[in-house]
Specification:
With 834 residues, this protein is of the alpha+beta class. Among the domains are: 53 residues; 186 residues, Biosynthetic peptidoglycan transglycosylase-like (Penicillin binding protein transpeptidase fold, Orthogonal Bundle). Helix content is 32%, strand content 14%. The protein is built from 21 helices and 28 strands. The strands form 10 sheets. It has a 6-stranded mixed beta sheet with strand order 3-2-1-4-11-12. Strands 6-5-16-15-14 form a 5-stranded antiparallel beta sheet, sandwiched between helices.
């Protein structure tokens, strides 16, 4: 069998092989069986050697370079802060903030070593004694009760390997652990482990765990707290104090016993720690599992949306960004409480089930508070403050009147609050009504806004035009498309509370629109500035004339002091705003401002069904008042508006009855503030032709078949001054109030006799040939005689004349003949209540 050993290359074999060959030959046939066994053994050992080489090559090939662990940079938690630096939200894939070993309590370090790897400081990454001990224990018990994974092995598995249960993975784990232990210090290994390990409830690393369970930093942990956290590593869900208090306490005591057995603590310290743990009331201290903590979710979700415009989504949740915001925590909390308590309290009894509010800082434009519902939950994460689009009702009238002021109208220009039809004789005929079903007759624009008269707003819209109003609304901050129809005057479009707050804030800023920031600065984990948005506060835009903004602010002030919005008034403070209520009480609004903040409030139902009688002047105005009261804390309630200087306005004496500049002899006057371009004037005419009140605006001709029944003769001398509404861009018919008409009686100082009271024909001239000025050809020719005893500028009520032939009373009057033809019926294209 072994012939040829002496010659050739075999003869040169190792002498030991030659001796083995001789020994083999000396064995006889009787030893053949033994020789076979030895051959098998040699082959087996050779196979083991070769297999070991192959296995080693397989296991060790491609092992990661553990030297890179010295620059360990895991996924980090993004943190969002309020304006005062308080943490209000965290975002993460894995909630983690790395810390150094010096920032971790020594008790925490000892606790994790005691329960997870008691010979950590002695072995070289793989604890062979521990393996033997665990194997023996498992054999004795008959079950796999003990493991022998060291901290280095666990770290290798978490950072480099999968969780598959194979011998190859175990061997690679051991090899990596050995490399880690021989290339990094024990302190660095422990630091990496504590930053990497999962402690349950979304907390990765010791910093997140300390914050979650105890609201502390890792260096502030007590003995029992350290033991509890160390005990979580093996089974975070099973031992969580937030879900199973008794299991958590039992596991904590187990860790304390392990620390005692190592001589780290005394029995007395252990017993004291057990007692402290038993007395503690566990609660979540703010860091939620899953994707992060959102303390003020309506605001912070909007911040996240803003972040997504600058950073990729994965970077927002993994990059450890430090995000600094504009949020006023106290104001946010009060706004959330107010919306929730008012909607779910009195609002619920009236059929409301949702609400929203936005608070802006007038001086900076910053969003200080945002509430998008009555409560954030897993099933309701819709932010109505900026995502919802609802009809604004009469709160939209601000844009109508502001556009009129921009076009040269004065707050004192009169419009008849009478039954009227717009676009008459067309399929789009529309007849608006007031919320009280009544009409006030001729009233100035200022009063029309103060009492939210729908007919007056529609007529102002008819004169200015929907294009001008919609264009101004867009410039002021409304982003949604708006219908270019006359019913837009009453809120036919759709807007969000944030848009309305942004647009209204233009007024206290003197016509300047400011960006509405939520984020001021973003840095990386090391403090390097990645995004500086605070400088964007200077990116302002003038969208409204300063005088228009000032006049509009004064007009809205009257709404709060004596109009539909008195419930919003804050005692001792300057407040302006506008109510809004849509048809069938589906939406209710109040949008207004103080010298310091602009606040938008909406109340309604998510299913768009009608509420009870919830007007903008009720629940929304009450919410506004409470929020404004909180916002005014620390501010002067009567400080000047940041963009308006009322000291530069013009004070004009007006006649109480006529609401126009008082002429000599007016019995009662009052003072009013006006700004350049908005002082009411009388247009002079020499030939009797009524010119447009606003010469800077191109007038359109009055339709021949339009009934224009309003004319005021202030002082019909040779240089007569006549006031009338400008010709409408959209034609409308109007009907005088039934039963009476309010007209002016002016004292005339003329060097001739006055005609006696008597029968007067409706021909545009009095009996003595005195000429007057008709508004249009056809019906409704005015006839006027004067009474020297009547004071100039007063008003009285007189019966409406059914015909042109009227027997005047002893005091002669300015009389208007009205047509008996009824105003045509029309179905509102988009009915609005108030």
């Amino acid at each position: 069998m072994f012939r040829g050993f002496r010659g050739g290359r075999m003869g040169k074999l190792n002498p030991y092989l030659m001796k083995l060959s001789l020994w083999w030959k000396k064995l006889g046939r009787e030893k053949a069986a033994l020789r076979v066994l030895l051959t098998i053994a040699l082959v087996f050992l050779g196979g083991l050697f070769v297999g070991g080489l192959i296995l080693a090559t397989t296991v060790l090939s491609g092992l990661p370079n553990v030297k890179k662990l010295s620059q360990y940079d895991p996924s980090q938690t993004t943190r969002i802060y309020s304006s005062d630096g308080t943490l209000i939200a965290t975002l993460f894939d894995q909630n983690r903030t790395p810390v150094t070993i010096d920032e971790v309590s020594p008790l925490m370090q000892e606790a994790i070593i005691s329960i997870e790897d008691r010979r950590f400081m002695e072995h070289g990454g793989v604890d062979f004694k521990g393996i033997a001990r665990a194997a023996l224990g498992n054999v004795v018990s008959g079950e796999v009760e003990q493991g022998a994974s060291t901290l280095s092995m666990q770290l290798a598995r978490r950072l480099f390997l999968s969780n598959e249960r194979t011998y190859t993975r175990k061997l690679r784990e051991a090899a990596l652990a050995w490399k880690i232990d021989h290339q990094l210090s024990k302190e660095k290994i422990l630091e990496l482990y504590l930053n990497e390990v999962y402690f349950g409830s979304g907390a990765y690393g010791i910093d997140a765990a300390s914050s979650l369970y105890f609201g502390k930093n890792p260096d502030e942990l007590k003995l029992w707290q350290s033991a509890l956290l160390a005990g979580l590593v093996q089974a975070p869900s099973a031992y969580s104090p937030l879900s199973d208090r008794q299991a958590a306490l039992a596991r904590t005591e187990e860790v304390l016993e392990a620390m005692e057995s190592r001589g780290v603590i005394t029995p007395e310290k252990k017993q004291q720690a057990v007692q402290e743990a038993a007395e503690y009331k566990f609660r979540n201290h703010g860091v939620a599992g899953g994707s992060g903590m959102l303390k003020y979710p309506y605001f912070t979700t909007y911040v996240i949306q803003q972040l997504s415009e600058h950073f990729p989504e994965n970077y927002i949740r993994r990059g450890g960004l430090q995000v600094y915001t504009t949020l006023d925590r106290e104001l946010q909390e009060q706004t959330e409480l107010t919306v929730r308590s008012q909607v779910m309290g009195p609002g619920l009894s009236l059929g409301a089930d949702s609400g929203a509010a936005v608070v802006l800082d007038n001086k900076t434009g910053d969003i200080k508070a945002m509430v998008g519902g009555t409560g954030w939950s897993d099933s309701d994460q819709f932010n109505r403050a900026w995502q919802a689009k609802r009809q604004p009702g009469s709160s939209f009238k601000m844009f109508v009147y502001a556009a009129a002021l921009e076009h040269g109208f004065s707050p004192e220009n009169e419009f008849a609050d009478t039954e009227s039809v717009f676009n008459y004789d067309t399929p789009n005929a529309w007849k608006p009504a007031n919320s009280d079903g009544k009409f006030m007759g001729p009233i100035p624009m200022r009063t029309g806004l103060q009492f939210s008269r729908n007919v007056v707003a529609a007529k102002v819209m008819a004169h200015v035009g929907p294009d001008a109003v919609a264009g101004l609304a867009h410039r002021m901050g409304i982003e949604n498309d708006l219908p270019r129809v006359i019913s837009l005057a009453l809120g036919a479009g759709e807007v969000s509370p944030l848009e309305m707050a942004r647009a209204y804030s233009v007024l206290p800023n003197g016509g300047i629109k400011r960006p509405n920031l939520t984020i001021t600065k973003v840095t990386d984990p090391d403090g390097e500035v990645l995004l500086d948005l605070a400088k964007d506060r200077n990116k302002t835009e003038r969208v409204l004339g300063a005088s228009t903004a000032a006049t509009m602010s004064e007009m809205l002030r009257r709404v709060v002091t004596g109009g539909t919005g008195t419930a919003a008034n804050v005692a001792g403070s300057w407040v302006a705003g506008k109510t809004g209520t849509t048809d069938k009480f589906i939406d209710a609004w109040f949008v207004g401002f103080t010298p310091h903040h602009t606040i938008s409030v909406w109340v309604g139902r998510d299913d768009n069904q009608p509420m009870g009688r919830v007007y903008g002047g009720t629940l929304p105005a009450q919410i506004f008042r409470r929020v404004a009261t909180q916002a005014l804390k620390g501010h002067s309630p009567n400080a000047p508006l940041p963009g308006v200087n009322f000291a530069k306005d013009t004070v004009v004496e007006l006649c109480w009855d006529s609401t126009y500049p008082a002429l000599p002899g007016c019995p009662k006057t009052y003072s009013e503030h006006f700004y350049s371009g908005h002082i009411p004037t009388r247009i002079k005419t020499e030939d009797g032709t009524i010119t447009n009140l606003t010469p800077d605006v191109q007038a359109s001709p009055t339709p021949e078949d339009a009934d224009v029944t309003e004319i005021e003769v202030e002082d019909p001398r040779e240089d007569a001054e006549v006031v009338t509404p400008k010709t409408a861009l959209i034609p409308y018919q109007e009907k005088e109030p039934e039963g009476k008409v309010e007209v002016e009686i002016d004292q005339l100082e003329l060097e001739r006799e006055y005609p006696e009271a008597g029968e007067v024909e409706g021909q545009g001239e009095s009996k003595d040939g005195f000429k007057f000025y008709p508004t249009a050809e056809g019906e409704n020719q005015p006839v006027h005689t004067a009474d020297p005893e009547q004071p100039l500028g007063s008003k009285r009520d007189y019966p409406v004349a059914d015909t042109a032939d009227v027997q005047l009373e002893e005091s002669d009057v300015y009389q208007v003949e009205t047509s008996e033809e009824p105003v045509p019926e029309a179905t509102p294209a988009d009915p609005i209540t108030e």
